[in-house]
Amino acid sequence: MILAIDSGNTRIKWGLGELRASAGAVEWRRIATATLAEASRLREEWAELARPEKVVIANVAGEAARAPLEQALAPWAVAAQWITAQESQCGVTNGYLQPSQLGCDRWAALIGAWHLHRGASLVVTAGTATTVDMLGSTGVFRGGIILPGLELMKKSLAENTAGLPLAKGEYAEEPRSTQDAIESGCLHAQAGAIERMYSRLEPGAVCFLSGGAALRIAGRLDLPVRVVDNLTLEGLMRIAQ
Description:
The chain is of the alpha/beta class. The chain has helices at 42-46, 63-73, 104-116, 150-160, 178-198, 214-218, 231-240; strands at 2-7, 11-20, 25-35, 54-59, 81-82, 88-89, 92-94, 121-126, 129-135, 140-148, 206-210, 225-227. 32% of the residues lie in helices and 29% in strands. The strands form two sheets. It has a seven-stranded mixed sheet with strand order 6-7-10-9-8-11-12, sandwiched between helices. Strands 3-2-1-4-5 form a five-stranded mixed sheet, covered by helices on one side.
């Protein structure tokens, strides 16, 4: 069994699974999420699990997450693989000018997308930040964009204006309240950026969408969407193999 860990800016997501060689698919035994503040409790939660053969980690939260993760993994005495983006790996070629500067979570998500769809795709992760990455039909990462995530957009309006609240509105085609105007505007901004990047890909490309805001954004997109909640974990499993 392999323990894959995606340590993001806000949450830690982990999955215990194995790759079925015959079908080439990941069989997940368990997937769970914890906040960064709960990282120290993972040792107690993982004590219930059988010792994994491998541990593979994508960590973009820095030492705030690395230290408690190392402590939680210590009882197993398994050398964890802390991944970084490579020039080429698992069928994906890194087109970044400096390949190592690509975020490890984005790199894993690209690999996950490539193994789910061997063709052109737009790989979107909608979390604290929203990343929108283009993967060509031959597995070449062509570049991508980073923008504030949906909640971060709303928070910036509340913190930097005198009259706009941080309130929960609803999407509306013709918003008639300030709360709905903020929610609708931020969703339009996310969807617009995604659709503009998608238009640069080859015909027939698929848009993979993951992250905490994935479902809220998916309904606003006018393109083929496949919501995969554990895309980075999928990629980590391929890397571990």
